[in-house]
Design a protein that fits this description.
The protein has 114 residues and is mainly beta. The protein has one helix and ten strands; from the N terminus they run αββββββββββ. The mean pLDDT is 91.
Length: 114
């Protein structure tokens, strides 16, 4: 990836861990004065059941959907990788949440844009 933005905004990684409880869980904490721009992610379903997930921007109020519902199969894997322009981004100063009721694990990369 030779995006000139990376010289200014070094990519960071995050670990995805959702325990299957029916609520959104924070994956990247809010950064004051910055948007979280997701460049890639990989998710694996770990409990043997199919389900849906979606990414959300979580400011101090209600969460805002960044994606629609996406499906994942039992023990399946979903990847969206190496998008230098960014897959989606949070609102300024908002956390990145993963909303699902399935047990999911994985990782991703992002940059903080001011």
């Amino acid at each position: 990836m030779n995006n000139p933005l990376y010289a200014i905004h070094a990519p960071k990684s995050f670990t995805i861990s959702h325990d299957g409880s029916p609520e959104a869980q924070e994956q990247v904490a809010a950064v004051s004065g910055a948007k979280i721009v997701v460049l890639s992610f990989t998710l694996t379903e770990t409990a043997g059941s199919t389900g849906l997930f979606k990414w959300q921007s979580k400011p101090s109020g209600d969460a805002v959907d960044l994606t629609g519902d996406m499906g994942i199969g039992a023990y399946g894997c979903v990847q969206d990788r190496d998008n230098e322009a960014g897959l989606f981004e949070t609102a300024l100063g908002a956390a990145l949440h993963l909303n699902t009721d399935k047990a999911l694990a994985g990782y991703g990369t992002y940059i903080e844009m001011t």
